[in-house]
Write a structure and sequence with these properties.
globular, 4 helices
């Protein structure tokens, strides 16, 4: 699998930086941001060699049953209350790893964008 065309790669790298920054500033939850980054990781890291992306995939995998983003509109308020409580317990556990990972992604992909 080759690298995407240069302009697409630059756009995806800029998206990585933007999502990671939102996680760092708290405007995006860790799990939601990890999922967004996981969705575009192959466009930026086609060889799947980036350890930071792998760390985020692990965060996503551990929370795959917790709804985030637009999908929440399809869940009942009662179930969301329960899953939100789970999410509130889960995110602090992984905050340090997520913050360190996002800082690394911002540095790496800001320089290469």
């Amino acid at each position: 699998m080759g690298e995407p065309p240069c302009t697409e790669l630059a756009i995806r790298r800029a998206q990585v930086v933007e999502i990671a920054q939102r996680i760092l500033d708290g405007s995006c939850g860790i799990v939601e941001g990890a999922r967004q980054l996981a969705a575009i990781r192959l466009d930026v890291d086609p060889g799947e060699e980036d350890a930071d992306f792998r760390a985020l995939l692990g965060l996503d995998a551990h929370s795959e049953d917790l709804p985030t983003g637009d999908i929440r509109h399809f869940w009942s308020p009662t179930v969301l209350a329960s899953t939100d409580a789970e999410l509130a317990e889960y995110e602090p556990e992984f905050r340090e790893v997520a913050m360190r990972t996002c800082r690394a992604l911002v540095v790496r992909y800001s320089q290469s964008a």
